[in-house]
Amino acid sequence: MAEDKLTFAAIILVAIVAIIGMIGIMGYGELPQITGAGTTPSGTAKINISGLGCLALDDENVSLGTGSVTAEKIAALAVSNGTTVNGSWSADDAFNLRNCGNYDLNVTIETDDKDLGMTGTAVTPTSYFQPYDDAAPGEAGSCVTWVATEDQLTEFSGDATTQGFCENFTYGSGDDELGIDIGIKVPYDEPAGWRSAIITFTGEAAT
Amino acid sequence: MARKKRDIRKIGFIIALLLLVVVIATTGFSSEGLMNEDKTKEDVDTSVTGEVALDIKDAGEENVTVEATDELIMSSE
After folding, report:
1. Taking a contact as any Cβ pair under 8 Å apart, which residues of chain B between 44 and 73 contact chain A?
2. pTM above 0.80, yes or no
3. What SS3 string covers chain A?
4. What residues in B contact A26, CB-CB < 8 Å?
5. Which of A46, A166, A183, A204 is least surrounded by Cβ atoms within 10 Å, i.e. has the fewest?
6. Which domain holds residue A12?
7. Average pLDDT of each block of 10 consecutive residues along chain A (207 residues)?
8. Residue A59 shares a structural domain with residue A134
9. Is there a domain that residue B77 lies in?
């Protein structure tokens, strides 16, 4: 009988020690310290921040404006940073992509129609993208690793074809924005009128 | 003697059970554990779309004579 009581007491003791240890390890607060009068109570406030993936396009509509191919030139290359070769387009308007989450993203780009529906035949109409973080609206250091060359035009490889251009697009305030210019090659025999394409940016959590 | 052995086994079992609870609690519910789990599980796939457009003006007869050998410089600079 006495042995039973001893065993029960031992089990209870082990359980108490284990529970106190568990509380200590989980960090729900410091273990109480009995030091007499004058002690200052303290606690620990904890917050768990969940991962949030977020990509925002602050300028959704990029217009290169109105222009034409220079006389006696076979084609023009109009770029949304206002630079045009052999043409008169001059609008300065870039896509402004922002990482509004709290972890790095790998970003890809695609167009639904790389020739914007142009039908001219003097040269093959096509389009390009040019990412950067070293000038507005980009913010320096926003892209850790460029997959497409920064500040250079890369041709869209096809319709609805995903192309990576930045790995580890960062999220910190002050380095979470990229600029993306679009370049369009217009043949001189392209009929007048507006041409457009939908550009899609996709972000996936960087590992 | 046999009873004593049984009791020791019982105590051992309880200790093992409590240790298991501690391990699960510290790895599964710590803030770091939760954040890591969120990040891998979420595997975010965020897409945004925009539109690019340009207007082509009719250049009339100006382009009738074209320098066929003219090459377009692929540079924005």
Report:
1. 44-59, 62-63, 65-68, 70, 72-73
2. no
3. CHHHHHHHHHHHHHHHHHHHHHHHHHCCCCCCCCCCCCCCCCCCCCCCCCCCCCEEECCCEEEEEEECECCCCCEEEEECECCEECECCCCECCEEEEECCCCCEEEEEEECCCCCCCCCCCCCCEEEEEEECCCCCCCCCCEEEECCCCCCCEECCCECCCEEEEEEECCCCCCCEEEEEEEEEEECCCCCEEEEEEEEEEEEECC
4. 25-26, 29-30
5. A46
6. 1-46
7. 64 65 55 59 75 87 94 94 94 94 93 95 96 94 95 96 96 94 95 96 91
8. yes
9. no
